[in-house]
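Anyone else keep sequences and structure tokens together like this?

Example one:
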Amino acid sequence: MDSIWLLGEILMVNLVLSGDNAMVIAMASKNLPEEQRKKAVWWGSAGAVLLRCILTLAAVLLLKIPYIQAGGGILLLWISFKLLLEEEDQIRVSEGSTVWKAIRTILAADFIMSLDNVLAIAGLAKGDLALIVIGIALSIPIVVWGSGIIVGWLHRFPVLIYIGAYILAYTAGEMLLHDAKLGAVLSILLPTMHTLLPVALGVAVVAAGGIKRHTPKAG
């Protein structure tokens, strides 16, 4: 049951974090004829799965180094808050005129935008390579083929973004606790409360992000 729950969390996080990726895929292949568009999407998806598996496995190994996991947790905490901000970084995407150009665009964009996904999956899976591969293999095709639907869902059901942000912040808290060095320090500084850190961070990020998201801009 724990593995099924973790797999569900991985899929949810990928769903929420992949809105930009979905738009890139749609834009990169939209000018191709139907048959070529399907090829570009298929090969782009297969390449993205392989690329993200390699990056995530590398992250799992790096996160075993003292303080690296804590640094990853802090970065993931920022990503979880940034997810709730209205302003999002935009990546310029050239519309592919050939199958190969579209595939290259999809792979390049996925590489650039996969840091948040990679950190989240590495933190959630806790080194379980089977969960990492299954989670990525299932989530990327869903994102690729359902790109338009996913973007619509995120706009129609904002609660999905808040759920994703909470999971990310919670995972960031767990990464801080599990860091070989910082985790020991936190257990000393917060002897009775340190286990509640992930929940506290999740609630704080959702609350702060929600307030920021709905605060009218000056001017």
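And example two:
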Amino acid sequence: MTVDKVTSVPTVPIFGVQVSRLNMKDTLNVLIQAVKSRRPHQVITANPIMVMAALEDPVYMNVMKQAELIVPDGTGVVWAANYVGHPVPERVAGFDLLHELLAAGENYHWKVYLLGSTPEVIQATAQRVHELYPGITVCGKRDGFFGPNEDEAVIRAIREANPDLLFVARGADTQEPWIGKYKEQLGVPVMMGVGGSFDVISGKTKRAPKLFQKLRAEWLYRLLKEPSRYKRMLALPKFAVKVMREKENVTKV
């Protein structure tokens, strides 16, 4: 077991990716302290697909290594940690962590900035956040359709809004590198990529039913709903095979 240099979080390395061994409650407490510190913290919600992508792309791996906190979002990551004898107490799903942060933020009157998805979804998400968490202020929002030439303007708008939380929904291959590249300029205490969470919050799509969640098979539900994801999902069995074949090397840094 190693300890994260920024937040003193106990971690287990999964092929070089330092995954937190905290449960949801303790993760939330760490992030409440992060907001109070006012220092930038990037939170990555790791799944096997992202770990495999990091192994194939040194730039993506560097983003992972530079993140202040990586939580075990994917069931496969939780399984891998258990398989190699360094169990994590529970899965810390990004969607649930987002809601836990908003709920906690009501007590502190935090401000949140929403970035990503389509104009319609981002508008509906902002409205829903206001309804669910009236103690939270949505201090800004913008859809995810902007290119590198607009990054400076986006960063400026976020800095001017001065949020406590920044949620970015642009897809794992884009949102994590974008946050990692600009986190010091953004200066937001807690920044987290949230993938398709805005689609669920806005009502555009539904989260996997409780049965799939209980069986730890949300990935299967998403695949059934979106068969086009099958190529992306091929990383799941590849990850499992790699963990079993290289058990002795999984936790080597």
